[in-house]
Amino acid sequence: MMSDEKQIVKILQGNEACVEGALLAGIRFFAGYPITPASEIAEGMARRLPKIDGKFMQMEDEIASMAAVIGASLAGLKAMTASSGPGICLKQENIGFAAIGEIPCVIVNAQRGGPSTGLPTKPSQGDVMQARWGTHGDHPMIALAPSDVNEILQITVKAVNFSEKYRTPVMLLLDEVIAHMREKVNIPSREQLEIIDRKRTNVKKEEFLPFKADEDMVPPMADFGSGYRYHVTGLVHNEKGYPTSDAEEIDKFLRRLSNKVELNKKDIVIKEEYSLDDAKIAIVAYGSVARAAQRTVKLAREKGIKVGLLKLITLWPFDDDLINQLANQVDLIVVPEMNLGQMFREVQRAAQGKSRIISYSRIDGDLINPIEILEKIEEEMSQ
Amino acid sequence: MKNVIEQYIRKEMFPHIWCPGCGNGIVLGALIRAIHSLGWEKDEIAMVSGIGCSSRITGYVDFNTMNTTHGRALPFATGIKMSNPNLKVIAVMGDGDCAAIGGNHFIHAARRNIDITAIIINNMIYGMTGGQYSPMTPTGKFGSTAPYGNIDQNFDISALAASAGASYVARSSIYNVNQGIRFIKKALNKKGFSVVEILSDCPISYGRMNKLRTPVKMMEWIKSISVPKKTWEKLSVEEKKDKIPMGEFLDICIPEYTEKYKEICAIAQQGGENE
Amino acid sequence: MVPQKDNMKVYQNEETKIIVNEEWCKACGICINYCPKKVLVANEKGYPVAEKIDDCIQCMLCELRCPDFAIRVENRKKVANYNMKDGSLED
User: Fold this and answer.
1) Do chains C and A touch (3 or more CB pairs under 8 A)?
2) What ipTM, to 2 d.p.?
3) Is the CB of C24 less than 8 angstroms away from the CB of B14?
4) Is residue A4's pLDDT more than 90?
């Protein structure tokens, strides 16, 4: 197979794998600010981008980083920033701007314990809801959560692709533990990956409407300086890009904005199933916890308990149908998370009472191990 | 006969929303005339603003435009400039936008000396939100959140720009409009971070609360408090308190950020990493 | 909004043409007040009227200081723009 020749294998840190994936996907602008546990991404970008005429900037703060990423994207470069909890909080206003301005960009959140300064060097999954609703108003959001270092590379590529395809900001959630650990990574060549670029318009300049959507609900874009002049504003706007106060225009625009992601769910939701076919008990997990859960399935099966795992890689948009079907099939769903039940709530809602849904939370800064999950399952089974 | 202004505006958006006598329109005219005299192509200009009455300016010009979040025009502009250094990037901000919430970004854009022209339309008030006092409201004057008089010191944003690393800093006013056009033209043409502060009016907020209720009264007041730089230097400390100096305060040639970054790329591509 | 024909008021003599766009004018009074030759007076709505157009020296200050692009001064003798910086006439 031709591709074997180009396969490079390296031991990489999770953050380093993120940089690799981003560069393969075409990221050529990075702006960031130092913050544990994401700083290595900025450092990697600082070393790699100048070698390929990409642009790296350490900005004066998190807010400026997000702004610079958006400006760079409009001027035609695929752009990314990386931070953690406190920095993601600061970025939220501008993330909303990217959402309403339909500007492709990726925001990496190497999650640490919160709230506030929290636990800077310890893993957490506490930003799940913040990823969806951190910025104000009704807006679309895509959030992806890889589980191991290899997956970080692959899912980073997917994150960039989605941001370009749907003209929307995408959050990449890395638990601190996988951001910092080192594992063997197969680094593909660019040709082996699907790389998606934003749709660029080719209509006559006078006819260009920067926010007029195609049938897929995504408007074709134009880079600043490419000959199409238009206005980008955070105000609710019409198809020309100018602010509007017309009720019908506002409704149409805001609904399309959210539906752009919600109704394209089938394309965006990435998940993996382990031993679910005949399962009577399911674990729904994501990120680093999904790795432990995979082992739990194995341990449980050895004991004769029919456990399966639904591993979510796409956290947002949330696929209700997926959970609904699962709840029909199994009697018990356990949702282990390193937070107080942020994804559990969604699973419970989507299950519509068709199954028992149990939350297993760990928020002490230590990892959930496979045996804990199994013990929880056994405890629930005995009730 | 060519109407210069009409070549550069989004005509369907006019008449604009600014109040009678508002200096924003005067600055817009000055900016357009300066750009016209430089012969720039509209496609190569990117104009970015924050939030406020002055920040509405970007909706009215036929360039690549952005109306961003409050105080953040400069970092958005920085991203555009770094991404495509061939674009001519202009950031237009009000005094509250630039000096309060945007103060930090202003310092660092100056510190980088990145090739962006910052136009600060200083009407010494937060106009759009109804007349609250701003960091540029003179001590003792009134605002809706300083009903008994402003006790803050107002600071000199032009001095801040100069000390932070900018390469061109100038101040003019909506009264001295010819001078304003000259300074803006120079600033646009300058490679590096250039700042032009234009002293402006807000008859309906600042004016109403400070006994300058008509556009003409405000214009008269601006005329009376603006002094040329050389005259200002000769004033006593007391006299200086009520006047604002106009002129060019800084005009130097220092390395520009995107040029320095190109050098970094060259070093990186020759394998020159710090081990 | 494109100005309607009847809102464009033209005042002229052999040398000078002053055009007032009453659609865009907001009657702020700046042009009237600061004309060095007192060419302009306000009508009942506050819009400028070039009553003494013969005194106009084409200094352009009304046009430059208008916040609304509502007044323009043109030299009728030669079709040109006046360059503010160096006083040259350019096409």
Assistant:
1) no
2) 0.96
3) yes
4) no
